[in-house]
Q: What sequence folds into this?
Protein backbone atom coordinates (compact mmCIF):
# COMPACT_ATOMS: atom_id res chain seq x y z
CA UNK A 1 0.00 0.00 0.00
CA UNK A 2 1.17 3.55 -0.72
CA UNK A 3 1.63 6.06 2.07
CA UNK A 4 -0.02 8.76 -0.03
CA UNK A 5 -3.51 8.56 -1.53
CA UNK A 6 -2.27 9.02 -5.08
CA UNK A 7 -5.18 10.27 -7.18
CA UNK A 8 -5.51 8.68 -10.65
CA UNK A 9 -7.97 9.61 -13.39
CA UNK A 10 -8.64 6.73 -15.79
CA UNK A 11 -10.02 8.05 -19.08
CA UNK A 12 -11.49 4.91 -20.64
CA UNK A 13 -12.86 4.38 -24.14
CA UNK A 14 -14.74 1.34 -22.77
CA UNK A 15 -15.92 0.35 -19.31
CA UNK A 16 -18.38 -2.32 -18.13
CA UNK A 17 -22.01 -1.29 -17.60
CA UNK A 18 -25.32 -3.04 -17.04
CA UNK A 19 -25.96 -2.96 -20.78
CA UNK A 20 -22.43 -4.12 -21.69
CA UNK A 21 -21.08 -6.05 -18.67
CA UNK A 22 -17.86 -7.27 -20.31
CA UNK A 23 -16.91 -4.16 -22.34
CA UNK A 24 -13.53 -2.85 -21.22
CA UNK A 25 -13.17 -5.46 -18.48
CA UNK A 26 -9.36 -5.03 -18.72
CA UNK A 27 -9.75 -1.35 -17.74
CA UNK A 28 -11.99 -2.29 -14.83
CA UNK A 29 -9.43 -4.85 -13.66
CA UNK A 30 -6.72 -2.18 -13.77
CA UNK A 31 -8.98 0.17 -11.79
CA UNK A 32 -9.50 -2.53 -9.15
CA UNK A 33 -5.76 -3.23 -9.05
CA UNK A 34 -4.94 0.46 -8.54
CA UNK A 35 -7.55 0.66 -5.78
CA UNK A 36 -6.14 -2.44 -4.06
CA UNK A 37 -2.63 -0.93 -4.10
CA UNK A 38 -3.72 2.26 -2.37
CA UNK A 39 -4.60 4.58 -5.24
CA UNK A 40 -7.73 6.70 -5.29
CA UNK A 41 -9.37 5.95 -8.64
CA UNK A 42 -11.89 7.86 -10.73
CA UNK A 43 -12.99 6.51 -14.11
CA UNK A 44 -14.48 8.70 -16.84
CA UNK A 45 -15.97 6.79 -19.76
CA UNK A 46 -16.78 9.03 -22.76
CA UNK A 47 -18.66 7.37 -25.62
CA UNK A 48 -20.78 8.06 -28.69
CA UNK A 49 -24.48 7.22 -28.75
CA UNK A 50 -24.27 5.61 -32.21
CA UNK A 51 -24.05 7.54 -35.47
CA UNK A 52 -25.63 10.92 -36.18
CA UNK A 53 -28.50 9.27 -38.08
CA UNK A 54 -29.52 6.80 -35.39
CA UNK A 55 -28.96 9.15 -32.47
CA UNK A 56 -31.10 12.10 -33.61
CA UNK A 57 -33.73 11.24 -31.02
CA UNK A 58 -31.22 10.47 -28.30
CA UNK A 59 -29.98 13.02 -25.87
CA UNK A 60 -26.60 13.07 -24.21
CA UNK A 61 -26.42 11.01 -21.04
CA UNK A 62 -24.33 11.78 -17.97
CA UNK A 63 -24.14 9.75 -14.77
CA UNK A 64 -21.99 9.33 -11.67
CA UNK A 65 -21.97 6.05 -9.78
CA UNK A 66 -19.79 4.49 -7.09
CA UNK A 67 -18.79 0.98 -8.10
CA UNK A 68 -16.43 -1.08 -5.93
CA UNK A 69 -15.10 2.07 -4.18
CA UNK A 70 -14.39 3.66 -7.57
CA UNK A 71 -16.12 6.77 -8.90
CA UNK A 72 -17.37 6.10 -12.43
CA UNK A 73 -18.60 8.96 -14.63
CA UNK A 74 -20.23 7.97 -17.93
CA UNK A 75 -20.67 10.63 -20.61
CA UNK A 76 -22.64 9.50 -23.66
CA UNK A 77 -22.77 12.00 -26.51
CA UNK A 78 -24.95 12.13 -29.60
CA UNK A 79 -22.79 13.27 -32.57
CA UNK A 80 -23.68 16.94 -33.21
CA UNK A 81 -23.14 16.69 -36.98
CA UNK A 82 -22.82 13.79 -39.42
CA UNK A 83 -19.46 12.60 -40.86
CA UNK A 84 -17.18 15.06 -39.02
CA UNK A 85 -15.67 12.93 -36.27
CA UNK A 86 -13.31 15.69 -35.15
CA UNK A 87 -16.30 17.87 -34.26
CA UNK A 88 -17.82 14.98 -32.28
CA UNK A 89 -14.56 14.45 -30.37
CA UNK A 90 -14.39 18.16 -29.44
CA UNK A 91 -18.05 18.18 -28.42
CA UNK A 92 -17.51 15.11 -26.25
CA UNK A 93 -14.54 16.82 -24.57
CA UNK A 94 -16.77 19.78 -23.79
CA UNK A 95 -19.41 17.48 -22.28
CA UNK A 96 -16.76 15.68 -20.19
CA UNK A 97 -15.59 19.02 -18.75
CA UNK A 98 -19.20 19.96 -17.97
CA UNK A 99 -19.75 16.60 -16.25
CA UNK A 100 -16.60 17.02 -14.14
CA UNK A 101 -17.76 20.47 -13.10
CA UNK A 102 -21.26 19.16 -12.33
CA UNK A 103 -19.90 16.39 -10.10
CA UNK A 104 -17.26 18.66 -8.53
CA UNK A 105 -14.29 16.78 -9.98
CA UNK A 106 -11.47 19.30 -10.25
CA UNK A 107 -8.89 18.10 -12.82
CA UNK A 108 -6.15 19.68 -10.70
CA UNK A 109 -6.95 17.19 -7.91
CA UNK A 110 -5.51 14.35 -10.00
CA UNK A 111 -1.80 13.56 -10.13
CA UNK A 112 -1.86 11.55 -13.36
CA UNK A 113 -4.28 10.89 -16.21
CA UNK A 114 -4.07 7.30 -17.48
CA UNK A 115 -6.05 6.98 -20.71
CA UNK A 116 -7.07 3.80 -22.50
CA UNK A 117 -7.48 3.56 -26.30
CA UNK A 118 -7.09 6.66 -28.46
CA UNK A 119 -10.71 7.12 -29.55
CA UNK A 120 -12.02 8.66 -27.40
CA UNK A 121 -10.35 8.14 -24.03
CA UNK A 122 -6.87 8.93 -25.31
CA UNK A 123 -7.83 12.11 -27.15
CA UNK A 124 -9.94 13.52 -24.34
CA UNK A 125 -7.21 12.60 -21.85
CA UNK A 126 -4.71 14.42 -24.09
CA UNK A 127 -6.80 17.61 -24.25
CA UNK A 128 -7.44 17.51 -20.49
CA UNK A 129 -3.74 16.91 -19.83
CA UNK A 130 -2.72 19.90 -21.97
CA UNK A 131 -5.35 22.25 -20.57
CA UNK A 132 -4.57 21.54 -16.91
CA UNK A 133 -0.87 20.68 -17.24
CA UNK A 134 -1.24 17.13 -15.95
CA UNK A 135 1.04 14.23 -16.88
CA UNK A 136 -0.58 11.65 -19.15
CA UNK A 137 0.15 7.94 -19.47
CA UNK A 138 -1.66 6.18 -22.29
CA UNK A 139 -2.35 2.50 -22.94
CA UNK A 140 -3.21 1.78 -26.57
CA UNK A 141 -5.93 -0.82 -27.07
CA UNK A 142 -7.28 0.55 -30.36
CA UNK A 143 -7.30 -2.64 -32.40
CA UNK A 144 -8.41 -0.72 -35.50
CA UNK A 145 -4.97 0.95 -35.62
CA UNK A 146 -3.62 -2.56 -36.21
CA UNK A 147 -6.40 -4.43 -38.00
CA UNK A 148 -8.06 -1.71 -40.08
CA UNK A 149 -6.11 1.57 -40.14
CA UNK A 150 -7.92 2.71 -43.32
CA UNK A 151 -11.02 3.50 -41.24
CA UNK A 152 -9.19 6.50 -39.77
CA UNK A 153 -8.67 9.86 -41.47
CA UNK A 154 -5.40 11.72 -41.86
CA UNK A 155 -6.60 14.04 -39.10
CA UNK A 156 -7.21 11.05 -36.78
CA UNK A 157 -3.67 9.88 -37.44
CA UNK A 158 -2.26 13.38 -36.91
CA UNK A 159 -4.07 13.76 -33.57
CA UNK A 160 -2.88 10.31 -32.48
CA UNK A 161 0.74 11.14 -33.28
CA UNK A 162 0.48 14.45 -31.38
CA UNK A 163 -1.03 12.70 -28.37
CA UNK A 164 1.73 10.06 -28.40
CA UNK A 165 4.34 12.83 -28.59
CA UNK A 166 2.77 14.53 -25.58
CA UNK A 167 2.40 11.47 -23.32
CA UNK A 168 5.03 10.60 -20.74
CA UNK A 169 4.62 6.93 -21.71
CA UNK A 170 2.58 5.12 -24.35
CA UNK A 171 2.03 1.51 -23.32
CA UNK A 172 1.17 -1.44 -25.56
CA UNK A 173 -0.03 -4.83 -24.40
CA UNK A 174 2.44 -6.79 -26.55
CA UNK A 175 5.54 -6.32 -28.68
CA UNK A 176 3.43 -7.15 -31.73
CA UNK A 177 0.88 -4.42 -30.87
CA UNK A 178 3.66 -1.88 -30.40
CA UNK A 179 5.43 -2.67 -33.66
CA UNK A 180 2.32 -2.90 -35.85
CA UNK A 181 0.71 0.27 -34.42
CA UNK A 182 3.85 2.34 -34.88
CA UNK A 183 4.30 0.94 -38.38
CA UNK A 184 0.76 1.97 -39.38
CA UNK A 185 1.25 5.43 -37.83
CA UNK A 186 4.67 5.83 -39.54
CA UNK A 187 6.36 6.37 -36.18
CA UNK A 188 9.82 5.34 -35.04
CA UNK A 189 10.32 3.42 -31.79
CA UNK A 190 11.17 5.76 -28.89
CA UNK A 191 11.93 5.35 -25.19
CA UNK A 192 8.44 6.66 -24.43
CA UNK A 193 6.93 3.53 -26.04
CA UNK A 194 6.85 0.49 -23.78
CA UNK A 195 5.26 -2.96 -23.60
CA UNK A 196 3.19 -3.57 -20.47
CA UNK A 197 0.91 -6.64 -20.63
CA UNK A 198 -2.68 -6.71 -19.49
CA UNK A 199 -2.99 -7.70 -15.84
CA UNK A 200 -4.56 -11.09 -15.13
CA UNK A 201 -7.07 -10.81 -12.30
CA UNK A 202 -5.83 -12.20 -8.97
CA UNK A 203 -8.82 -14.56 -8.84
CA UNK A 204 -7.33 -16.63 -11.67
CA UNK A 205 -4.07 -17.13 -9.75
CA UNK A 206 -5.86 -17.90 -6.50
CA UNK A 207 -8.17 -20.51 -8.06
CA UNK A 208 -7.18 -23.99 -6.95
CA UNK A 209 -5.55 -26.17 -9.60
CA UNK A 210 -7.82 -29.13 -10.22
CA UNK A 211 -6.37 -32.61 -10.43
CA UNK A 212 -6.00 -33.82 -13.99
CA UNK A 213 -9.02 -35.51 -15.53
CA UNK A 214 -8.51 -38.95 -16.99
CA UNK A 215 -6.71 -38.81 -20.31
CA UNK A 216 -9.46 -40.90 -21.91
CA UNK A 217 -11.90 -37.97 -21.72
CA UNK A 218 -10.11 -35.03 -23.30
CA UNK A 219 -12.04 -31.75 -23.02
CA UNK A 220 -10.86 -28.57 -24.69
CA UNK A 221 -12.16 -24.99 -24.58
CA UNK A 222 -12.18 -21.95 -26.83
CA UNK A 223 -13.58 -18.59 -25.68
CA UNK A 224 -14.18 -15.85 -28.24
CA UNK A 225 -16.93 -14.06 -30.10
CA UNK A 226 -18.10 -15.50 -33.41
CA UNK A 227 -16.43 -12.97 -35.67
CA UNK A 228 -14.07 -13.54 -38.63
CA UNK A 229 -10.89 -12.57 -36.72
CA UNK A 230 -11.39 -15.36 -34.17
CA UNK A 231 -11.30 -17.89 -37.03
CA UNK A 232 -13.56 -20.59 -35.55
CA UNK A 233 -13.87 -22.31 -38.92
CA UNK A 234 -10.19 -23.29 -38.72
CA UNK A 235 -10.80 -24.69 -35.23
CA UNK A 236 -13.70 -26.88 -36.40
CA UNK A 237 -11.81 -28.17 -39.42
CA UNK A 238 -8.80 -29.02 -37.26
CA UNK A 239 -11.01 -30.72 -34.69
CA UNK A 240 -12.54 -32.94 -37.37
CA UNK A 241 -9.03 -34.23 -38.07
CA UNK A 242 -8.32 -34.76 -34.34
CA UNK A 243 -11.56 -36.70 -33.80
CA UNK A 244 -10.50 -39.26 -36.41
CA UNK A 245 -7.73 -40.29 -34.02
CA UNK A 246 -9.49 -39.52 -30.74
CA UNK A 247 -13.26 -40.01 -31.38
CA UNK A 248 -14.29 -39.20 -27.78
CA UNK A 249 -12.44 -35.89 -27.52
CA UNK A 250 -14.77 -32.99 -26.56
CA UNK A 251 -14.77 -29.30 -27.41
CA UNK A 252 -16.57 -26.43 -25.68
CA UNK A 253 -17.00 -23.21 -27.68
CA UNK A 254 -18.12 -20.14 -25.73
CA UNK A 255 -19.15 -16.85 -27.30
CA UNK A 256 -21.73 -15.00 -29.33
CA UNK A 257 -21.75 -13.12 -32.60
CA UNK A 258 -22.90 -12.94 -36.21
CA UNK A 259 -21.23 -16.15 -37.42
CA UNK A 260 -22.83 -18.50 -34.89
CA UNK A 261 -25.42 -20.09 -37.21
CA UNK A 262 -22.84 -20.49 -39.97
CA UNK A 263 -20.35 -22.14 -37.61
CA UNK A 264 -22.91 -24.53 -36.16
CA UNK A 265 -23.83 -25.54 -39.72
CA UNK A 266 -20.14 -26.19 -40.47
CA UNK A 267 -19.88 -28.29 -37.32
CA UNK A 268 -22.81 -30.41 -38.51
CA UNK A 269 -21.42 -30.79 -42.03
CA UNK A 270 -18.09 -31.97 -40.59
CA UNK A 271 -20.07 -34.48 -38.47
CA UNK A 272 -18.35 -33.35 -35.31
CA UNK A 273 -19.36 -34.96 -32.03
CA UNK A 274 -19.09 -33.88 -28.40
CA UNK A 275 -19.33 -30.17 -29.25
CA UNK A 276 -20.85 -27.92 -26.57
CA UNK A 277 -21.90 -24.36 -27.47
CA UNK A 278 -22.09 -21.84 -24.63
CA UNK A 279 -23.19 -18.18 -24.70
CA UNK A 280 -20.82 -15.36 -23.77
CA UNK A 281 -19.35 -15.96 -20.31
CA UNK A 282 -19.03 -13.72 -17.25
CA UNK A 283 -15.60 -13.44 -15.62
CA UNK A 284 -16.61 -15.98 -12.94
CA UNK A 285 -17.91 -18.37 -15.60
CA UNK A 286 -14.63 -18.04 -17.55
CA UNK A 287 -12.71 -19.29 -14.50
CA UNK A 288 -15.16 -22.15 -13.99
CA UNK A 289 -14.92 -23.31 -17.60
CA UNK A 290 -11.12 -23.05 -17.75
CA UNK A 291 -10.92 -25.17 -14.60
CA UNK A 292 -13.15 -27.86 -16.15
CA UNK A 293 -11.05 -28.35 -19.31
CA UNK A 294 -7.64 -29.81 -20.10
CA UNK A 295 -6.43 -26.95 -22.29
CA UNK A 296 -7.49 -23.70 -23.97
CA UNK A 297 -7.41 -22.97 -27.70
CA UNK A 298 -7.11 -19.76 -29.71
CA UNK A 299 -7.28 -19.72 -33.52
CA UNK A 300 -7.27 -15.95 -34.08
CA UNK A 301 -5.77 -14.51 -37.25
CA UNK A 302 -4.55 -11.42 -35.34
CA UNK A 303 -4.55 -10.84 -31.57
CA UNK A 304 -2.98 -7.89 -29.77
CA UNK A 305 -2.62 -9.86 -26.53
CA UNK A 306 -4.88 -12.86 -25.86
CA UNK A 307 -6.22 -12.38 -22.34
CA UNK A 308 -8.00 -15.75 -22.04
CA UNK A 309 -4.74 -17.45 -23.04
CA UNK A 310 -2.93 -15.68 -20.19
CA UNK A 311 -5.82 -16.42 -17.80
CA UNK A 312 -5.69 -20.13 -18.69
CA UNK A 313 -1.99 -20.19 -17.88
CA UNK A 314 -2.67 -18.44 -14.56
CA UNK A 315 -4.82 -21.48 -13.75
CA UNK A 316 -2.07 -23.88 -14.79
CA UNK A 317 -3.61 -24.92 -18.12
CA UNK A 318 -1.54 -25.40 -21.28
CA UNK A 319 -2.72 -23.81 -24.53
CA UNK A 320 -2.68 -24.38 -28.28
CA UNK A 321 -2.73 -21.14 -30.28
CA UNK A 322 -2.19 -19.92 -33.82
CA UNK A 323 0.67 -17.46 -34.27
CA UNK A 324 -1.54 -14.36 -34.19
CA UNK A 325 0.99 -11.77 -33.02
CA UNK A 326 0.38 -10.89 -29.39
CA UNK A 327 0.42 -14.51 -28.19
CA UNK A 328 4.15 -14.65 -28.91
CA UNK A 329 4.61 -12.70 -25.66
CA UNK A 330 2.48 -15.18 -23.71
CA UNK A 331 3.13 -18.75 -24.88
CA UNK A 332 6.45 -20.51 -24.33
CA UNK A 333 7.52 -24.12 -24.87
CA UNK A 334 6.74 -24.92 -21.25
CA UNK A 335 3.22 -23.42 -21.40
CA UNK A 336 1.81 -24.59 -24.74
CA UNK A 337 2.03 -24.96 -28.50
CA UNK A 338 2.09 -22.20 -31.16
CA UNK A 339 1.09 -23.29 -34.66
CA UNK A 340 0.86 -21.82 -38.14
CA UNK A 341 -2.52 -20.50 -39.25
CA UNK A 342 -3.83 -23.57 -41.09
CA UNK A 343 -6.28 -26.23 -39.93
CA UNK A 344 -3.71 -28.96 -40.62
CA UNK A 345 -1.06 -27.22 -38.53
CA UNK A 346 -3.50 -26.53 -35.70
CA UNK A 347 -4.67 -30.17 -35.69
CA UNK A 348 -1.04 -31.26 -35.39
CA UNK A 349 -0.63 -28.84 -32.47
CA UNK A 350 -3.62 -30.36 -30.66
CA UNK A 351 -2.29 -33.88 -31.22
CA UNK A 352 1.14 -32.79 -30.00
CA UNK A 353 -0.46 -31.42 -26.81
CA UNK A 354 -2.44 -34.62 -26.23
CA UNK A 355 0.58 -36.85 -26.73
CA UNK A 356 2.86 -34.76 -24.49
CA UNK A 357 0.24 -33.58 -21.98
CA UNK A 358 1.94 -35.21 -18.99
CA UNK A 359 5.07 -33.12 -19.61
CA UNK A 360 3.19 -29.88 -18.84
CA UNK A 361 3.49 -29.07 -15.16
CA UNK A 362 0.52 -27.05 -13.93
CA UNK A 363 2.38 -25.21 -11.18
CA UNK A 364 5.24 -24.33 -13.56
CA UNK A 365 2.72 -22.88 -16.04
CA UNK A 366 1.05 -20.85 -13.30
CA UNK A 367 4.31 -19.48 -11.92
CA UNK A 368 5.40 -18.48 -15.44
CA UNK A 369 2.19 -16.48 -15.82
CA UNK A 370 2.57 -14.99 -12.35
CA UNK A 371 6.05 -13.64 -13.17
CA UNK A 372 4.65 -11.76 -16.16
CA UNK A 373 0.95 -10.94 -15.65
CA UNK A 374 0.22 -10.77 -11.90
CA UNK A 375 -0.97 -7.51 -10.34
CA UNK A 376 2.19 -7.28 -8.20
CA UNK A 377 4.44 -7.39 -11.27
CA UNK A 378 2.33 -5.01 -13.38
CA UNK A 379 1.78 -2.63 -10.46
CA UNK A 380 5.50 -2.39 -9.70
CA UNK A 381 6.04 -1.13 -13.25
CA UNK A 382 3.08 1.28 -13.08
CA UNK A 383 4.32 2.73 -9.76
CA UNK A 384 7.59 3.60 -11.45
CA UNK A 385 5.91 5.01 -14.58
CA UNK A 386 3.55 7.23 -12.54
CA UNK A 387 6.34 8.47 -10.27
CA UNK A 388 8.51 9.34 -13.27
CA UNK A 389 5.58 11.06 -14.98
CA UNK A 390 5.00 13.22 -11.91
CA UNK A 391 8.69 14.04 -11.57
CA UNK A 392 8.87 15.15 -15.21
CA UNK A 393 6.08 17.69 -14.57
CA UNK A 394 7.58 19.19 -11.40
A:
Amino acid sequence: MRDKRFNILLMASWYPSKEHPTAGSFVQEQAHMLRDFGYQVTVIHPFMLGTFANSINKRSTVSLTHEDDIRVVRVGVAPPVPFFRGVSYAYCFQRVREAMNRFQLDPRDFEVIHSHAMFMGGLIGYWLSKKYNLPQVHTEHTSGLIFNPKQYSKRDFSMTRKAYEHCHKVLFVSQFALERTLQNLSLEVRDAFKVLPNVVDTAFFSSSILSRAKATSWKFLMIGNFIPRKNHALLLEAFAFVQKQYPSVGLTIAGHGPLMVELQALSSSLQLKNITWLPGLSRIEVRKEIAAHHAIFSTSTIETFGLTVAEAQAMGKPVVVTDSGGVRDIVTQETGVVTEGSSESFAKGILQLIQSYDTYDQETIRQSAKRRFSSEVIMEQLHEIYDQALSSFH
Summary: The longest strand covers residues 40-48. The chain has a mean pLDDT of 92. The chain has two domains: 7-199+374-393, 203-373.
